[in-house]
Specification:
single chain, about 350 residues, alpha/beta, 3-stranded mixed beta sheet, UCP012608, DUF2332 domain-containing protein
Length: about 350
Amino acid sequence: MSEQDVRDAFATQAEFCDRSECPVTAAVVRGIAAALDRSTETGRRTLEWRGDPRGSNDAVPLRLAGGMHALARRKADARLVRLYAGALEDSDAIVRDVLHRFDAELATWLDSPPQTNETGRAAPIMAGLMVLAAEYGLPFELIELGASAGLNQNLDRFGYRLGDAAAGDPDSPLQLAPAWGGESPPAAEVRIVARRAVDRNPVLVADPAQRERLAAYCWVDQTERMQRLEAALALAAEYPPDLEQGDAGSFIESALAEPQRDGVCRVVFHTIFWQYLDAATQDRIANALRRAGASATAQRPLAWLRFEQLASGLVPPELHLTKWPGGRERHLATGHPHGSKIRWHG
């Protein structure tokens, strides 16, 4: 990619922040772009980026925005702290100064893509589980792919208001009530008897540094999102997720080969994960599910539940459910990438 492509990526990201009513993050992204030159390691590496800086796998502007937020959270620079508190005057000059003084540290944030664990995406998944619970009346074994920190392994310990339907724990510190359109999902109890997850680069929530990195990728303007993350981390400390490091294709083949208990519905789910896979891994996962589905029965059903963007660009993700026996697929909902808005199709 050219230098102009890189600068365009920052401009596009800043405009998205503006549309999302996140003025601080927008100002920081614009300040980073204005400060980029080849006098710093951060500038050189960014301007000479070999991939697609706008791509979801690269997300270069958000890598550096996370680094800036991390510096602000630990109060590394007083003016940067004031900027993150909403004092946007001289934001370009502040960001430029911080980038030059903390160049070596900020450059390390280019080494890996943003790693978030958006708990709001548990809302569409819970709605899909309610559909399955109403149909089968069985408890669930959950298998999550691309789980990040595994925070959504505790999704039954969150509280939900999904249209007119309530679900989960009404006393949970984490309550999700997305803006809802269409009919409500069926009011069926979701019982989880087993859960496990995998991620290629899992975030270990027992490590304070990794917890802090998760928080740094959460935009300071999105206070409700930060509150959800903090509540989910507290639940994960009490109920640690069963999270493995590994390749999703190998993991799911192994997991689906394990015996399934009678009277339990096995559910494989993932959220905003599919786009990060190459075509071969996508095919490997889909084929493993189809093979396992061929052996599913009414007492040992299998379901594939996914909340994913099915096309490139700023298209809304869709909630799809495929279940076996039968292999029938349904488009259950369309929503916001963070799960804050859901249009139910049922």
